[in-house]
Amino acid sequence: MVDSVVDRLPALIVGILAFVLFYVLSFLAARFVARAVSSRRQNLAVVFARLIQGATILVGFLVSFSIIAPSFQASDLIKILGVEGVAVGFAFQNILQNFLAGLLLLWTEPFRVGDEIKLDAFEGTVEEIQTRATIIRTYDERRVVIPNARLVYSLRHREHGARQPPMGVRPECPEV
């Protein structure tokens, strides 16, 4: 057992170094993408940077795992994920729904950071728009995390700037 671990030690070290290299590369690639896109649309820059970073880390994990375990084939993993993808899809339905709603919000920009929104009992200023949820600061200084799927379906919105709201967003925000 000890001999087997000692024999695999060089592959383990090279695999870890490869993963660290991809990890650092992911931050550099994310920064490059964020700078390239941020001049056009700030929200999309964040989304694309996170997607590039995640994809680079995933590729780094697959490469390092194939170095550590040479019998591992990425095609085997893809076959397993294809079969189990349906089950995973049903298990993570709400997470995926919020993620896709977040992408839709970031793409269409019905509101921006600093705008005032109202959803059900929560009313406040948008602090951060993420791919999964939007964080608002209420008028009584509470931070509220609202899933993006809820925002897509029922939102009342009042802007600070002169932008016109997109179709389907009511600019009036009745007083509570």
Which key phrases capture this entry?
alpha+beta; 176 residues; SH3 type barrels; elongated; 5 helices; single chain; 5-stranded antiparallel beta sheet
What does this structure look like?
The chain has 176 residues and is of the alpha+beta class. The protein has five helices and five strands; from the N terminus they run H-H-H-H-E-E-E-E-H-E. The longest helix is centred in the N-terminal third of the chain and has 37 residues, at 2-38. It is elongated and about 65 Å long.
Structure described in brief:
The chain contains five helices and five strands, in the order ααααββββαβ.
Radius of gyration: 22 Å
Inertia-based shape: elongated
* Low-confidence sequence ranges: 162-171
Number of individual domains: 2
Instruction: Give the termini distance in whole angstroms.
Output: 69 Å
- Indicate the structural class: alpha+beta
Beta-strand fraction estimate: 5-15%
Helix content: 55-70%
Q: How many DSSP helices?
A: 5
| Largest sheet, strands/sense/barrel | 5 strands, antiparallel
Question: What topology does this entry show?
Answer:
Blueprint (H helix, E strand, L loop, with lengths): L1 H37 L3 H27 L5 H18 L1 H16 L7 E4 L2 E8 L3 E6 L4 E5 H6 L2 E3 L18
Antiparallel strand pairs: 1-2, 1-5, 2-3, 3-4
